[in-house]
Amino acid sequence: MAEKKKKSGVIRRIASDISSKDRAVFVGLIIIIGIAKLCLSIAPRISGQITDDLANSAETGVFDNGFIISRCALLAFLFFIGYGVDGVVNRYMVRISQKLSQKLRDEAQRKLNHVRMGFLDTHPVGDTLSRVTNDLVSMSNSFESTVSNLIGQLILLLGLIIMMIVTNFKLALIYLIVLPLGFSFTALVLKKTNRLFRVQNQTMGDLNALVSDSYANHMLIKAYGCEGEKQGSFDESNKKFYDTYVKSRFLSGFVIPLSVMINNIAYVGLCIIGGIMLLNNKLTLGEFQAFIFFGNMVGTPLSSLSSSMNNIQTGLTSAERVYELLDEEDEPEEHPAANIEVEKVKGEVTFSHVKFGYIEDKQLMSDVSFTAEPGQTMAIVGPSGAGKTTLINLLMRFYEIWDGKILVDGIGADEVLKSELRSVFGMVLQDTWIFDGTIADNIGYGKKNATREEIINAAKLVQCDSFIEKLPDGYDTRISEENSALSAGEKQLIAIARAVISDPKILILDEATSQVDTKTESLITQAMERMMEGRTSFIIAHRLYTIRNADKIIFMVDGDIKEVGSHDELLAKRGLYAAMYESGASMG
Q1: To 10 degrees, what angle do helices 255-279 and 285-326 make?
Q2: Does residue 16 belong to any structural domain of this protein?
Q3: 487: confidence class by pLDDT, cuts 50, 70, 90
Q4: Domain containing residue 497: CATH number
Q5: Collapsed DSSP state (helix, strand, coil) of residue 59
């Protein structure tokens, strides 16, 4: 029952997502399909009348040519209408389904732009990609090619049964008894395959996630010799997909043969009983011929309905996964009460009694408080899992705090639009992000409508212009994260240039030089020191020697601040920071 409600809910969602204009077109198409299929259901009756007229004419020797010609013309017209509208219907169904697909694809992209950061952190990229691509295509194809066919075949089957009853009720009873039995068996098979189709789609998402992860980290996998382990995981996931796919197709493959078998049983009964009635003069030759025609035609909608039901199930299962993504919770709605004038931002940042946790009832930060004065360099250090990155995530409002206040120049971060708040910051992360485009595109991404001169100046500032100019196409060289002739260090330099061109008021540096060699690190450090002048800067440090000159060092453990002070002050305290510094340990 719950499954039926879920399916009906998905169908209602699909109907509501189709525009009112397209819904009107769809209703019109259904009417046209209905008329066309009713024309086909009448055709055997007309054919029988022609046969009876010819038989009577053979007995009397008088041929009514006008009647026969008119009936033949009517029969041709019925077939023309019955089959001729399919092309027109298909054209408009394609347009409606692709508009629906386009709308849902747009909604999926908007959802991914506004979904909670926690969703992106906890869902595999491959599975999400599968929902937006494979599942959406499957849903669209099902609607495009199956819905109109399903409705048309239902109308045709209903019309044929009605015409059978009108022609001869006793013979019609054969189909009235056999068909419900066939549909009952089909329903049992479809109920079983529905669960398998859902597992199959989920397994495909898991397989895509595994493949995506393997391709994105292939160098790391090779470096650690994990090819065998990854191959084992892939084989296991691949086999699971194979098993569910084979089971679902095996069971669904019974549907069409079952329908054909039922129709053949009814057809044999029709021939035997109809032949006996014909010999006993309880049935005319034309009526018998019409029923033979009816029997042949019934086979088409029976097989088509079975196939369509399989496709509909696949499409609805895919639609469920698409709507599950669209139903994910967005970031909290914003009600800005203040504005930040970016040009006038001084860079004062205050955390006041901040409490936060990623999971409900599991608090990470219990009481975090500190102030960064304008222009100060704040280094955040601590062991792995201390909450260093979390602090930055909260500052950027990637996550919402549970309690307390985060202020920028005395204005609550939650009182302004996130886009407005984030425009104040410039970020350079340990993991570089390079998108598919030219080097100029990647650097210019940091500033809207950046000029070529600004892009080149930013590159020169971080000392990456020298290797860019040596490339065949210079700044117009195409690069991507997965496929690029650039080294990891060179990609990091481009990411740093992107931050430079945005001219941020507050800098966030997550060990930005960790990907480069010692010589390049020295050049970048000098460039970043110039960039940090007059700006409030937060440095997440993993190597302690990189933050000795920071104005303040925040030492964190288990989500909370344990010590705050300059390098010399913290050494003098002989506390946690001093112990870790003197041991030469890395900061995770």
Answers
A1: 160
A2: yes
A3: confident
A4: 3.40.50.300
A5: helix
Q: What is the pLDDT of residues 177-205, one digit of tens each?
A: 887 877 777 777 767 776 777 777 777 77
Q: Which residues of 441-479 are buried (b: 16+ CB within 10 A; e: fewer)?
A: bbbbbbbeebeeebbbebbebbbbbebbeeeeeebeeeb
Burial class (CB in 10 A: 0-12, 13-18, 19+), 271: middle
**Which candidate, 564, 560, 561, 562, places its Cα nearest to that of 551?**
564
- The phi, psi pair for 225, rounded to 5°, reads 65, 35
For residue 212, the one-letter residue type is: S
Give me the torsion for CA of 528, 530, 536, 537, rounded to 10°: 10
**Which pLDDT tens digit goes with each residue over 531-555?**
777 889 898 876 665 677 888 999 9
Whether residue 39 is found in the same domain as residue 182: yes
Report field, pTM of the whole predicted structure over 0.85:
no
What's the total number of domains in the chain?
A: 2
| CA atoms of 270 and 288, how far apart (whole Å) | 9
Residue of 140, 63, 149, 64 whose CA lies nearest to 95: 140
Say how far apart CA 212 and CA 25 lie, in whole Å. 40
DSSP 531: H
Q: What is the CA radius of gyration of the chain?
A: 36
3 state SS of 522: helix
- Three-state helix/strand/coil letters over 413-478: HHHCCHHHHHCCEEEECCCCCCCCEEHHHHHHCCCCCCCHHHHHHHHHHCCCHHHHHCCCCHHHCE
In this structure, are residues 290 and 75 in contact, taking their beta carbons and an 8 Å threshold?
Answer: no
Residue that finishes a domain, picked among 310, 326, 342: 326
Neighbours of 379 (CB within 10 A): 25
